Structure formats: structure tokens, C-alpha cells
Amino acid sequence: MTDINAYEGAPEAEFRDFIALLKPRVMSLVVFTAFVGLWVAPVDVHPFIAFCSVLFIALGGGASGALNMWYDADIDAVMRRTQSRPIPAGRIDGNAALSLGLILAGFSVMMLGLAANWFAAAFLAFTIFFYAVVYTIWLKRSTPQNIVIGGAAGAFPPMIGWACATGGISIESLLMFALIFFWTPPHFWALALFMKSDYHEAKVPMLTVTHGRPATRRHVFAYTLVLAPFAIWLGLTSVGGPIYLAASVVLNALFIHGGWQILRRSEDAAIADGYAVEKRVFKLSLNYLFLHFVALLIQNWVGAW
């Protein structure tokens, strides 16, 4: 880890730079899945408490993002897609990012405990620790399984949302966790297939760097097969139903087909068309997860109506 301080003559930080530290795109996924986890839970939650719970979970996700950007500033400075981030670009001092992350982490955990319950707050604290320490500091730079194990951090938010409503864990929340957990590797490895040079230059042991693209292709397809049963199983629980099941079957068929296309591709063909298939499957993976949780919401609304 390198602490990158603002250099002389660097552009002055703007408000949007501090927002960027919180990784708003990642935070939007955290907010949405946490909201769905809270909403579909079999316990009525006052709208104000629900709003506060999701807000503080979002702030906790932002804290994780700031701590990740603080520690990964040296990597971000090397990778093309991250060079414009506030710290490597010199707009924000690394120590300021660290302070922001720690303050937001403490504030979000304390306020979630007061707004919802202390089990959910402890769960949020563990999630921040897992992402900032276990994934960012340890796994990301030490093993090609970084995404597999580290993916748990991104899979916890719906469980936290469920815990805000119920104060505990259930098979439904565990399967929402499994849905995101097993989705994460094929999602990121599809990205890594056409971004290998970035990870190689930054010395991040992504699977494409340590085992090569052919092995990564096999892993992408294998994980789409592992993912499908858990995604469909969720539809057989109390939060599922015919709408969710229909959506899940279609989405998993498309994702497995995408994984199969990636598996069958030769490197020459991928280079020739600029990794068009890999990029298409990566975009599909984004819609895959979003639409699963949308289907859960719709199923819940229809069931309530």
C-alpha cells in the first residue's frame, strides 16, 4: 500500500471527488440489494426506520469504498481504468480518504444499531472489515481466489437488510447471499478476460494473470452452472413464486449460454473482434443480478396485493 498525497499544482478537490471515493456505482448495488432484503422480509418495518436502515447501510458501503481506494491507491495509479480516481489523480490526499472511511464506518454502524438493531449493526461492521481488510489488504494481492472469497463482502447487504427487519438470519437471506456470492466470480472474470493487461501491470493476481485466459474461461462457465441452482432455489422459498422463478430460469439460461460461448472461444477469435462476446457477457451479468432482485420485489408486491 502506498499513501499518495496531493502533489503540488494538483487540481483542487471538488465535492464530486469525495463522492467518487465512496464508489457510488458499487454503493447503488449495495443500496438496492439491501433494500430488497429488508422489503421482502416477513416483518413490517416503519417506513422511516426502513429509510434510515438503507441509508446507513449505504454509508457503510461508502466507507468500505473509501478505505479500499485509500489502500489501493498504488494499484489504481497503474491501471488505466482507475488512474482518474481522486487519489491517484492527486485531487484528494490519501490520509483524507482514510479518515473519511473510518469516520463513515463508525457513524454508519452506530446509527444502524440505533435505527434498527445491534445485530444488523454488528453485521454491517463485519462487512466493512471483511471488504477493507480481508479482501482489500489480504486477498486481493495474495491469491487468484480473491474475487471468490472476497465476493462475500458484496453479498452481505441483502442479509443485513433482512436482519434490520427480523433481527436474524434465515434460509431466504442466505440464498440471497448465495445468489450474489456465486455471481461475483463469473461477473469479474468476464471483465478480467478483456482487462488482463491492467491487472498484469498492477501485479494483481487475478485468475487471468496467474492461470491464463483458457483456465479463466473454464471457471466462468463452471460458476454459471454452480450459480443457477441457488438462484432458482430462492424462488422456492417464502420470498419466491412463479414470477421470480420464471425470470430466474430465463436469466440463468442466458447466463449459462453466455458462459458456454466464452468457454468455446479461442484467443484468436476474441482478439479479432475485440473481446466482443466477453464484453457482452459482462454486461449480461450486470442485468442478471439486477433483474433477479427486481423479480423478488415484483413477486413480493404481487403477493401482497
Task: Give descriptors for this structure.
305 residues; mainly alpha; disordered N terminus
Structure description:
- The protein is an all-alpha fold and 305 residues long.
- It is built from 15 helices and no strands.
- 76% of the residues lie in helices and 0% in strands.
- α3 (47-71) packs antiparallel against α8 and α7 crosses α9 (171-194).
- It is flat and about 55 Å long.
- The model is unreliable at 1-9 (pLDDT under 50).
Give a brief description.
The chain has 15 helices and no strands.
* Overall helicity: over 70%
The number of distinct β-strands equals 0
Order of helical and strand elements? HHHHHHHHHHHHHHH
- Overall radius of gyration: 20 Å
Alpha-beta classification: mainly alpha
Helix and strand arrangement:
Layout: H1 15-21, H2 24-39, H3 47-71, H4 73-78, H5 94-115, H6 118-139, H7 146-155, H8 157-166, H9 171-194, H10 196-201, H11 207-210, H12 213-234, H13 242-264, H14 267-272, H15 276-304
Helix pairs in contact: 2-3, 2-8, 2-15, 3-5, 3-6, 3-8, 5-6, 6-7, 6-8, 7-9, 8-9, 9-12, 9-15, 12-13, 13-15
